[in-house]
Amino acid sequence: GEDVEQSLFLSVREGDSSVINCTYTDSSSTYLYWYKQEPGAGLQLLTYIFSNMDMKQDQRLTVLLNKKDKHLSLRIADTQTGDSAIYFCAERRSSSYGGSQGNLIFGKGTKLSVKP
Amino acid sequence: DADVTQTPRNRITKTGKRIMLECSQTKGHDRMYWYRQDPGLGLRLIYYSFDVKDINKGEISDGYSVSRQAQAKFSLSLESAIPNQTALYFCATSGDRVETQYFGPGTRLLVL
């Protein structure tokens, strides 16, 4: 498909792990990103992964990249109520896929709800 | 102080009115973007600019125009607002090695 796909909702209990999944479109995408949007605010970069990596860990966050399946996931360990937000996956498409340098294609966002 | 600012933060206008949304940045980035966010549709790119002399249409540019007055300023105009332009509008900039986009706080626009 042409779109970056994410499930729209995820609900977890405080202390559990959250896994947010994303499928992207361009197997030549150079960078893939996860952004977080808290209520009433703009998007903030959480983390990114370069396409020649298959995993990146940053404190409670783990990003897994499966280039063969064009699948990206974000795992949040020990999820807290402050993690409740909308999480956007984004890809930077290559020029051969019609991308322009610097332009990102965003998914529709996954709303994460953390229950105490 | 915020690196990317947007004014106004909220605006209510009537159908047919002209409205301008402004964006300023202090990050020194060349690239600037305007997006709109609608529930269930995510972010869609309206226009982008790679420098002062470079303006490009995005995915949904119809009904919008932009002006890049300086490296630090990028304005979005709705020449004749219509109700389906009611949305949350974000400005963003980029310029680092990995093309991280830095977003403003958003402008919530309601067209009656």
Structure description:
The complex is a heterodimer of chains A (116) and B (112). Chain A is mostly beta strands. In chain A, 0% of the residues lie in helices and 51% in strands. Chain A has no helices and eleven strands. Chain A has strands at 5-6, 9-13, 18-23, 31-37, 43-50, 55-58, 61-66, 71-76, 85-91, 105-106, 110-115. In chain A, strands 2, 4, 5, 9, 10 and 11 form a six-stranded mixed sheet that branches. In chain A, strands 1-3-8-7-6 form a five-stranded antiparallel sheet, with no helix packed on it. Chain A starts with a strand and ends with a strand. The mean pLDDT of chain A is 90. With 112 residues, chain B is mainly β. In chain B, 0% of the residues lie in helices and 58% in strands. Chain B is built from no helices and eleven strands. Chain B has strands at 4-7, 10-13, 19-25, 31-38, 42-51, 54-57, 65-70, 73-78, 87-94, 101-103, 107-111. In chain B, strands 2, 4, 5, 6, 9, 10 and 11 form a seven-stranded mixed sheet that branches. The N and C termini of chain B lie far apart (33 Å). Classes of the chains: A mainly beta (116), B mainly beta (112). Chain A binds chain B through residues 8, 31, 33, 41-45, 48, 50, 88, 92, 100-104, 106-109, and chain B through 4, 31, 33, 40-43, 45, 48, 50, 56, 58, 90, 92, 94, 98-106.
Morphology of chain A: globular
The biggest beta sheet of chain B reads: 7 strands, mixed
Number of strands of chain A: 11
Number of helices of chain B: 0
Total helical elements of chain A: 0
Radius of gyration of chain B: 13 Å
Structural class, judged by helices and strands of chain B?
mainly beta
Strand count, sense and barrel status of the largest sheet of chain A are:
6 strands, mixed
Overall radius of gyration of chain A:
14 Å
Helix content of chain B: under 10%
Shape verdict of chain B = globular
User: In percent, how much strand structure appears in the residues of chain A?
Assistant: over 45%
